[in-house]
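Late entry, evening session. Most of the bench is empty. Finally got around to the prediction I had been postponing all week. Sequence below, unchanged from the version circulated by S.P.
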Amino acid sequence: MSKVTIEFFHDAVCGWCYVLSPRLRKLAQRADVEIKQRSFVLQRNDEEMIQRFGSLAGAKSEILNHWVACQQKADDPTAFNIEGMRAKPFSYPSGYLAALGAKTAEILGNSDTHWDYFDEIQRLHLKVNDNIGERQTIIQAAQNIGLDSQKFEELLDSEQVRTAVEADISLAQQLNIRSIPTLVVNGEHVITNALTEEQLDNLFVK
């Protein structure tokens, strides 16, 4: 039987992705699966945030309410610092720059490097409450996982990286993906949910 391929579509600002990622890591240790990382961006900039939520203040308020639900379902509730983010003076950031960072990490390494970067940028966002809309935070995440910061920064602005992010977003559109986290199994079976460990085992552990 051939190895199952799972494509994990995610956005760094997505609390449910933060809940699901460690469960997928445990699954990868227990089952014969290959997990590929795919970038997905809910809102690209402040203008899209305002269009979706009415205002930047409204965006932050509504999204942090989502964090509360995510924290309640997380295996480690302490991974969320909701009040810390609420107190930050900056507007809630888009995940687009983080997606560029994750793809840069992937090009410098592989899909697992992308995953390591994604987990770290989410930790900086949801637990440390750094502003992932700022370039220095994006670079710091690369340094934190051991990437060469100079090579990372040089590649970050490249057309190669931007094209790679857009390719993932285009693939999501082809698969009619509208929300995240989404898992695509063997290129066709789409699961849109933050599955529990038990649910993942029932699907993939034989």
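Two things to note before I forget:
The longest helix spans residues 56-73.
The mean pLDDT is 96.
Will write this up properly tomorrow.
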